Structure to design on (358 residues):
């Protein structure tokens, strides 16, 4: 774990460098290469496979995360960038839904080692496709961005970087919301099985949550294009809070309430990943955007790591995960209020600066 933490930190620094110094397709290829090394390391039966496998995974976790998807769409589209981002992020969720049963089948029918080898080989092929097809900007292929040509890309970014005080509260809110935002889905099955639901019922609820999350990412991007980041984010935060609140009623055994809870929560938790790019674009200049996205993503992930032991610890004391969901509901509301208040204040400062230049 120490090696993983060291490499994870190194991956963060390397991710910033990759985002700002090299082309998008090379950045994605390096990230895929690190993950491929990790998977192959766990597959080969060598004495040191755990050491260098964890190291490669740490580098991948630190450098990769969601950064290519969060930023790569910006030069490609001139209009409906929120929708483009939502579709991009929804594809990652869809891949999890498709890949999970396949990997489970490989583990049960063959072995865990074989599943890692297959994953590594598949990612090698995916990286080759990315390296061959993906380019940093449309003009690399002598084409134009999708959408109206009169829309300037610079308008997608803030006229200046956010003041230090407001930037601090933005980061604090993202850290706090990252605690429940990245942990809630992991404990859906445990919550309902610990409160008397059957294994198949819990599995069905988890699948419904995944579908709702995928849909929520597309819907969020669409309404963000029409209403703006601030208002659209409030809608999803409210949905996430309502859904988590219904999940807190798991002890009543009502399956309809449970289904409504996971659907609302899935729709709302799309804000966890998709909003990172939008917040960064509103709080940073074009030059500072890649580093800001990385910083926000690291804080969100750090929140998940810091809070990761809490649900299990509370379940040991109470016998189920209801209290853990109550705590995550409180953190969801607190994180949303802090980050939205700071983002709104940053928007006011940006508007004042823009009006002063006119």
């Amino acid at each position: 774990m120490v090696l993983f933490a060291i490499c994870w930190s190194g991956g963060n620094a390397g991710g910033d460098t990759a985002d700002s110094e090299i082309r998008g397709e090379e950045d994605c290829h390096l990230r895929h290469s690190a993950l491929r090394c990790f998977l192959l390391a766990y597959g080969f039966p060598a004495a040191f496979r755990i050491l260098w496998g964890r190291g490669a995974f740490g580098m991948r976790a630190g450098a990769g995360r969601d950064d290519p998807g969060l930023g790569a769409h910006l030069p490609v589209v001139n209009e409906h960038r929120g929708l483009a981002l939502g579709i991009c992020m929804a594809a990652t969720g869809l891949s999890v839904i498709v890949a999970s049963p396949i990997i489970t089948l490989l583990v049960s029918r063959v072995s865990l080692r074989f599943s890692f080898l297959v994953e590594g080989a598949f990612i090698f092929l995916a990286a080759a496709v990315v390296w061959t097809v993906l380019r940093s900007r449309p003009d690399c292929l002598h084409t134009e961005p999708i959408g109206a040509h009169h829309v300037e890309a610079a308008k997608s970014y803030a006229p200046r970087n956010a003041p230090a005080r407001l930037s601090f509260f933005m980061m604090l809110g993202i850290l706090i919301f990252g605690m429940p935002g990245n942990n809630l889905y992991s404990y859906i099955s445990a919550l309902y099985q610990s409160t008397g639901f059957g294994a198949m019922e819990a599995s069905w609820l988890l699948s419904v949550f995944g579908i709702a999350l995928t849909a929520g990412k597309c819907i969020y991007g669409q309404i963000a294009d029409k209403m703006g980041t601030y208002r659209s984010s409030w809608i999803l935060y409210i949905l996430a809070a309502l859904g988590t609140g219904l999940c807190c009623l798991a002890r009543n055994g009502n399956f309809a309430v449970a289904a409504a809870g996971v659907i609302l929560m899935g729709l709302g938790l799309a804000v966890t990943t998709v909003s990172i790019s939008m917040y960064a674009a509103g709080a940073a200049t074009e030059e500072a955007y890649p580093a800001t996205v990385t910083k926000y993503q690291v804080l969100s992930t750090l929140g998940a790591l810091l809070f990761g032991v809490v649900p299990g610890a509370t379940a040991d004391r109470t016998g189920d995960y209801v209290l853990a969901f109550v705590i995550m509901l409180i953190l969801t509301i607190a994180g949303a209020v802090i980050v939205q208040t700071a983002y709104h204040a940053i928007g006011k400062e940006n508007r004042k600066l823009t009006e002063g230049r006119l």
